[in-house]
Amino acid sequence: MAKSALLKSSLAKKYWMAFTGLFLCLFLVGHLFGNLQLLIPVSEGARDQFNEYALFMTTNPAVKILSYVTYLSILFHAIDGILLTIHNRKARPQGYVSFKPSTNTMWSSRNMGILGTVILAFIVVHMSMFWAEMKFGGLDETVYTTANGEEVKDLYTLTIKTFQDAQYGLIWAIAYAVAMLAIGFHLSHGFSSGFQSLGVNHPKYNGFIKKTGYAFAVLVPLAFAVIPFYIHFVLEKI
Amino acid sequence: MNLTLKIWRQKNADTKGKMVTYQVSDISNDMSFLEMMDVLNEQLISKGDEPVAFDHDCREGICGSCNLQINGEPHGPDRGVTTCQLHMRKFNDGDTIIIEPFRAKAFPVIKDLVVDRSAFDRIQQAGGYISVNTSGNTQDANSIPVEKENADMSFYAATCIGCGACVAACKNASAMLFTSAKVSQFALLPQGEVEADRRVLQMVEQMDKEGFGNCTNTGACEIECPKGISLENIARMNREYLKASIK
Q1: Of A173, B48, B99, B134, whose CB neighbour count within 10 A is largest?
Q2: How is residue B126 annotated by DSSP?
Q3: In chain A, which residues have their Cβ closer than 8 Å to the Cβ of B8?
Q4: ipTM given for this complex
């Protein structure tokens, strides 16, 4: 019984949700450090550095394994969330005439499904804009050789041009900021909730986990959101 | 004070219910909420109407019988109290009060505001006990030393009266606070260790079988619990279950 319980029970769903969610938090940190290279001035070789980094991220075998784990995590996290929502709706077939969850819970904790859907939609759009272009799209014509003698595709120029576009650049930056807001709210509940689900709850550490969660939920999405605006308004035009 | 009451009326489990509006007058501030309901029922009986059915027993906050959803919150707007301990001074003259049964698939309505909470009994029966042979050689419980901290936490978990407010308050109608309290009260004591793995696995299995929703850590249960049962218990159950599952 024990083994099957770990796959099917209500608690198993919590473990998977927490485990994949916390792993995706780590992914966010890694992704953010990569993105911060976009803040480097064009004149200081930003194009070569970013493109070499992009080449490394798409070809290194270890990163490749990590990226598959990330895709699986997103998939598991989303499917688990959908199953959870369906199951939980069924648990109260007849609703209340008057129900005041705002008196005892945070908005984000009650709307993880909606926030998650927004985030999933963002991931699809985001990946089709950059990742798919890099992998399958029109970037083949932009292969060039860097100062190190490596042949790379020019993801840097695509990224910078997207957000510097006179017509749509600012709209994209705002759309990305909205998605980051959704991620921020999702994290404000998800980060500490993940620890609770895995059984990490102790009066001594709860305050620290909660505060770290809030700091993470504000700082990481904020840093992500700033980059497109920086590219649009501050970075020299290419 | 004079009040307008909107109350869920349902003849039995098979009929459809509806909200019915009643007026009550001259309600004293010092009355408990259930005394106010008694006034309404006497009024209904004297008119030859069917009184409103609601659960109650000890009326001092220890039996866990009373269970009304009042203005969108289990046991009403006050914190740390059951419906019988809620005083009418928490309301104002002229207020409209909406009174509903606790809603969950696992808590079907029997009549009006009375719901069937035997799902909790079945969860308890699935493992919420310790087996002790009473053959005459039973060891004195006090001969086994228990850390003070664990004894206290076990006692706090054991103060759960099984009223079902956690399920009623949860947007997912999850019973994890109840189940975790019943798991914790034994998991923290040496007497409960022998059956620890079997207990948590069976109680969670029964909880899932009863059709309760899944916990998403919103924390509504902890806030609405009349006994202040902590979310720490759910985390402990998560740990106990993980430990028992991988063995």
Answers
A1: B99
A2: T
A3: 97
A4: 0.91
